[in-house]
Amino acid sequence: MDNYSANTTTLAPRPGSLKATGLPENFLPDLVCKHLAEAGVLDLAVLAQRLALLGSLVEEILGFLRADGRVEVLGAQGGSPFVRFGLTDRGRIAAASASARDGYVGPAPVTLPEYRRVVNAQSVRLYPLTRAQVHSAFADTVIRPEVLDRLGPAVNSGRPVFIHGEPGTGKSYIARRLSRLLGPPVLVPYAILFGDSVVRCYDPGVHRPVDEGVVAQSLMLSEGFDPRYVLCERPVIVAGGELTLDRLDLAFDPATRLYQAPLQLRANNGLLLIDDLGRQRLPAVSLFNRWIIPLEENQDHLSVKTGQHFTVPFDLVLIFATNFNPLELADQAFLRRIGYKVHFTPSSPEDYAAIFEQECEKRGIIYNPGLVSYLVEGLHGPRGVPLLACHPRDLLGLAMDYVTYTGEPMGETALLWAWDSYFVSDVDQTRAQ
């Protein structure tokens, strides 16, 4: 944390006044009322924690709400030094009205201009990759140097990267690993205010906090960065065959009256991998078209249900990965607009052996070069099956299941059993299933 604390505090200092939050005058009082309506009676410390605001600011809001007759003081309880607060009848009506307009109850959001500023200050383009960095990061990975030397410039370019090749050649694995080269951790807001609507941005399923303690900083102090943000590793989002165009727009739940940020917004300052391109329920060209303007302008256009339109940063590494021939998905003229194409091919016998050795080490198996020769020369070659990077891992996994079950040592018998279990048939083995 010490390496980042000074920069993050400068980038997003804690607001020392209600005005410094940038939020509309009535927004925070309404949000406090919604918190009290949801949780019941709360003391100042808990409210400050829930709102991710300094205690002094929450105290000021409560003073306004008391004067307005929406909140009453109920006294301290259980040895707590803080008095408790609850809603009056007027406050409950106000909370219901606020919830009807917007269902968000959580940490105070940041404004859209503030979000743009922070994202731009953390841009992936501020950390261009060098050849030495890329090769160092993949030193423990079996991958051809010429492939790395295509990926590095592609990531630096800011243009989308189109990775294609047979299934099992390591496309998705390598693409995800690129995220480690995108720069230091970034601040991700819990939520963003779009006009009169709040959009959830921080997603625990996607964003990984660098230090859980950062989220729980003391909110009664003025030290550290704005706790309306979470310091996270650069996000990596993977969307596969389930991807539809509506997931690339703001999602509104009419039951809860909540907005969820689209994939690309949650992936800002990180990496978005569209995997298994061509297997979605919509044409690949429709996905390509969705990114043309954002990629050219480095910004995206979103709208809420009222019709209000907003511009947000589009700052990420966008990677398409597919098992199809690119020309099956789009014509040459369109593919020229996509940017870089990187072809992943089957492994060489030497690379296959190196991957096999790595997998043996991971599983605690004594490496036996003879078993690799058996696979390559005795099974792959005669049966016409290409050497794919996934095969050593998958076949060893199945062989270990056999060894555990039978008590026999790892050997050719176990690998042959794994082979027969892994492939669908011997009739068409030109491609692993």
UniProtKB/TrEMBL annotation:
This is AAA+ ATPase domain-containing protein. It comes from the Bacteria. Residues 157-344 form the AAA+ ATPase domain. InterPro entries: AAA+_ATPase, P-loop_NTPase. It comes from Thiocapsa roseopersicina.
